[in-house]
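Input.
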Amino acid sequence: LQPYVNPTSTTTYYLTVKDIGNKVPCIAELIDSVTVVVKPKSSINVSANADTTICKGDTITLRAHCGNCPIDALYNWSPISGLQNPNNAVTLAEPVAPTTYVVSIATYASDCINPSGAQVKISFLPDAQCNPDTNKVKPTNLIIPTYLTQGQNWNIQNLPANTSANLYNAIGQLIFTSDNFIKEQSYLILAQGMYFYHLKTMDGVAYKGKVVVVK
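Output.
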């Protein structure tokens, strides 16, 4: 006999064997017992990094901490994309897109422990915050006008709309002004020489410098 039991609480089971035909003298029946002790499953406490934001291309360390895990605890981070050691408590991550990493913990030997886990949400900062020079206004310091292209030859990278512009000659005289330089730069006709510019965006960011016109 090999009965299968699945008790929900500690239970004692009895086995009784009777000699119905009185074939064994002095033994009418035999009784034995076995007690199955049911232990309640305990939960493990798992924590990980707080949700965070990084710049795209940055690397971040993910850490899982288990205060009451047994020594045979198994760590599993997912998704594994961008992870250096997905089966370690600590791993480096370099996500290529915003990702929520989930770490789960289980054990080989400790069947009385419920698997548990935690998650870390990684978001990306705007490119402008990670690469402040990407959207920075960058005026060139040299203008080489032609007959058909005068002010258009002054290349100002990332210039926002409605940026005002004032240009002064070498002795400080205002020779050109515009409330929207992008639309009105074609009216900028300068003689050869050095000039000083003052650009101001609608949000109040100012740029000052000098530019040389060569003909």
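The chain has a mean pLDDT of 80.
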